[in-house]
Write a structure and sequence with these properties.
The structure holds three protein chains of three kinds. Chain A contains five helices and seven strands; from the N terminus they run βααβββαβαββα. By secondary structure, chain A is α+β, with helices and mostly antiparallel strands. Chain A has a seven-stranded mixed β-sheet with strand order 1-2-3-4-5-7-6, sandwiched between helices. The termini of chain A are far apart. By secondary structure, chain B is mainly beta. Chain B has a domain at about 25-85 and about 110-145: SH3 type barrels (Roll). In chain B, about 15% of the residues lie in helices and about 35% in strands. Chain C has two domains: about 75-315, no CATH class; about 325-365 and about 375-595 and about 605-735, no CATH class. Chain C contains 21 helices and five strands. Chain C has helices at about 15-20, 75-90, 105-110, 135-160, 185-200, 200-205, 205-230, 235-255, 290-305, 315-325, 340-350, 360-370, 395-420, 425-455, 480-500, 510-545, 550-590, 600-610, 625-630, 640-660, 675-705, and strands at about 5-10, 30, 45, 715-720, 735. In chain C, helix 17 runs antiparallel to helix 20 and helix 17 (about 550-590) runs parallel beside helix 21 (about 675-705). The longest helix of chain C is centred in the last third of the chain and has 40 residues, at about 550-590. The termini of chain C are far apart. Classes of the chains: A alpha+beta, B mainly beta, C mainly alpha. Chains in contact: A-B, A-C, B-C. Strand 6 (about 120-130) of chain B pairs antiparallel with strand 1 of chain C, so a sheet runs across the interface. Chain C: Pfam families: Mak10, TPR_NAA35. Chain C: Keywords: Cytoplasm. Chain C: It is found in: Cytoplasm. Chain C: It comes from Triangularia verruculosa.
Amino acid sequence: MEQTSHHDRLPRELKYIQYEHRLETQYLPAIRALISKDLSEPYSIYVYRYFLYQWGHLCYLAIDPNDSSLVGVIICKLEAHASHSPPTLRGYIAMLAVQSTYRGHGVATTLVKMAIDSMKARNADEVVLETEETNIPAMRLYERLGFLRSKKLHRYYLNGNSAYRLVLLLKPVDPDSAADLALDEADIYR
Amino acid sequence: MQPPFPSPFPLSRNNHRGRSKAIMNYDALPTPSSKPEATDFLQTLLNKNLRVGTTDGRMFWGSFKCTDSDCNLVLQHTYEYRPPSLAQLEAATTTQNPQKGKVVMDMTSRYLGLVVVPGQYVTKIQVEEFASQLKSSAQGQQQQQQQIAKKVEIS
Amino acid sequence: MGGSEGIVAFDITKKFRAAAGTLELGELVKDDFFSLFESVGALEIMDPKMDSGCLAPGESLDEDYDVTRPLSPGEVIGIIDQLFCLEMAWYQGYPLSQTLLTNVYIDRMLEPEPLILQDADFIRERIAKEQRDPMHVVLRAYCLGLVKCCWYINDRIKFEHYYEEEDFVTNTYHRSLLDSFDLNDINDEIMAARRLVHSIRHRIGNELAQALGFRLELRTAFLRAIELSVMRSNPESLSLPWTQMKAVWEMIYQSRHLGQPVPEAFSTKIQRRLASTMPPRPIVKLSTEETYKHFKKLFVDGINVLNVLNYHDSQSLLVLTYHQNFVMTFQSQKPQPLVYIRTLLQSFLFKDMIILGKLSIRHVLDDDLSLVVLPASKFLDPANDLVEAPHHPRYALAHQMELFRQRAAQSYLDIFRAFCQNRCRIRRTLCHSIQDWETVQVDAEEIDQLLRLQIDEKPHVYPPTGDEDTSGVEPTYSLPLSSWAYLYKLRLMEWIVQLGFELDIYAPDELAGMYWYLSDLARHRARLVDRISYFTKLRAAEEKGGATAAQEAAFIRSKHYLYQASFDAAITWEMADAMSNMYAALGRLGLIVPPPRPYSTDELRYDVRMKPFGTIGLPELPSWEVYRASTDRAQVETEKLLEDARLSLEQAQRGLEVVARMSEKESFSVGCYERWLGGVTGQIRAVEKAGVVVEVVMRKLEEKGEGTKGKELGLKVGIGKAAEGEHEWWVVPTVEEIDQRA
């Protein structure tokens, strides 16, 4: 075939950048569009504000240098997890999306690695996320990096699908806080 | 990411949890020109009930929680009000006495909870105050105040 | 708009826009008490993905569908059959807004809210009875029955322990589901419709008349079943309407071809008028075949769940509960028991804190204690309660036992409650329960000490040395209550691990380690059962001669139980050992390759995996070094690993074959014997399949010689979903011979 598809030349040419507030006008609509297309759950503008305003430094963009278009994005947060004592610093990967034509070239893996590196540099104890049970590629991606499934969440999403909670521990568990770690606030038996 | 929309149904409207500044007559206020004035003005509105009209003719009634430079409004405990459709109007005209020249109909309303009304669709913003708490000195403004209409009147 | 009197509104559009315009990009004016995190649940207006009220240009909210148009019998059957699909989707956990409330007839019937039954109709104008389309009468009666069923079921589920949105959505979107109407009046309407159908059977033809009749009959029976379920006695009579439904359902399914679909009578547009904090969602499409299977299962489960009322003893109750939940795996070909059935189970078990409608918690607890650790014991003698002298030893026994019951009752019942939940929740709930049982055990130990002083128990050397001379060996006491608590705790810990397999929590290269840990837990349990048996035998021997017939019977029953329990523990121990060795070998041979995991270490992952067990004092969580050494068995040759696996599988198989021959009573599975036996045979199949895997790998290794790895062995190993295997707790890999040159 004569035709080389767009992504054959990429992704090594892609540019990876950290999100900054000045990029909002240029990239926020594209970020929303990309994620809205990929994720089963719709989110309002303020969900993006919530993450980007406080943790813009944990958001990375993959950009096609030819036309500066958005190819992929990861959005995260990092905060003390209060139900643990002493509180652990928990990173959370909220959203990850890559344009379908660019998939299979490690763009998502690069974005996740950048986010984890950044969280590690900020002293995170662990990184967690949820992913749809049916999303095999996503689970494989995270598990290749070292994440483990810690629990299954029945009918977690609006479409009726279940999810796995994935955990990547970055520092050893403090034995004294092990009890708290076992008990998650969401799981307290009613 | 965790699922949104846990759909808690409110037992009561609890919109005075946050701070709510003094009641005032908004018509008497000048249009804010400086940034401190502007933020102050917006702060005053927090936790008050707003009625926000949208380009499609609906109106959203809820407690004001947040805005940004694009006027994307966050409203809590929101109800949606929708004017009657043409078909409903026609039905009402035939059943009601048309001699008076007008028909009275309920706006249909429903509870939506927490909403974001994007600035690009906002056509009108109104703030509610209790008449009894308004300074009586607001003379001359009465004609501009609109009595809340539970009914819409179509002439 | 609420409270319009005395409220004035000011137009601030211009000022607001001007003020907001001065904000920087991304800058917010926000109520301090409002967290942006909450906005995850906000609906964005005018976004068609989130705003159900958002209309496309030129689109109207009005339904185009005319509910007054005449319907043919075939169309009524078509609508009813479509309603079955939606009803089942609702039982499965989808909201009414995506299921039954998408039907135009039901919508019109419920909105505006009817105040009298006559108005509960999709045609509100009064039409003389004889002038009504008889098919409208039939459809209305059916819908009345359906909606009333939904109201009862919704109400029942709300009363029990369930997880909103996860198990079930009770939201009715401000629609009243005929709450205020009398069931008898609705029954009358259905009966009238059934008579009407009968009277016009010549006109519409017998076949169609019968088909309509079956559908109405099902509704009558369903309402009857619901009505009866509040009683908790006489399971035979309770099961009658369920049996009837089961039979009628077959007739309904067989007559489905008579239905004529009316897709226009269903619309997501109705969501636009529902009070809902949810984004618009599509109508759930459940196929006729799926719907048929799920309803069939519902009726069978409805009959089976009543068996719980035939109480025999607490152990078979637990086995019953466990098997009831056993079929609940998300994957299963068989549909899982619906939350409504689980609700019935819960209410049969616990309603008003009276177990099964007739037993006190004390009764069930004492029965369990008597079975497991205290057969014919004076600790459980009700006569103790009659002693009023505070210094009498029996008074003290009664007092201490009551303290223990109060301490343990809640934890004990919580196990049953946990097992009424969905599988994911069971596992997570048990992670909390073991912390609780850890303290129950500690408290029980204290009470054990006080009790043994009261009866002046003589200590014994355990385990028995066989020597006459026992000097230098510390004798110990029977410690019945803490043994009992420990036994439950160990079982809970094993369940957590086993549910981990079932829910596909563990990565392939974790299987060797997790099966090793399971075998370690089962080993502790086997030893504990041995210890309990030893002390029970001692007491039986001491009391021989003086024992009454009832006491003898209690000892025998306990002996049977402990015999069965020790088999159960030993089988788990052997099987888990075999699996661990097999997976260790597969890992070593490069047939299971761990992912690169650049951000993790083996030790950190062990921390994550063992979090729930980290705080348990007994058995103490093995250190990472012990875990790794026991799993890898680095000093043992691969052939030996496989050989050990083979031997353990043989042992397990022998054990399972003995167990499979146990009767209903011997296996403590009265009321659920078939399900129990199904589990045992599933385990036997898993053992056999694992045996084949071990054999194939051994043969290849012999052919190719030590040191051959991965592809060169000419083997490919796959690990499927646990629930698709022979038994969900035993993940057996598939082995495929491949051409290694390829």
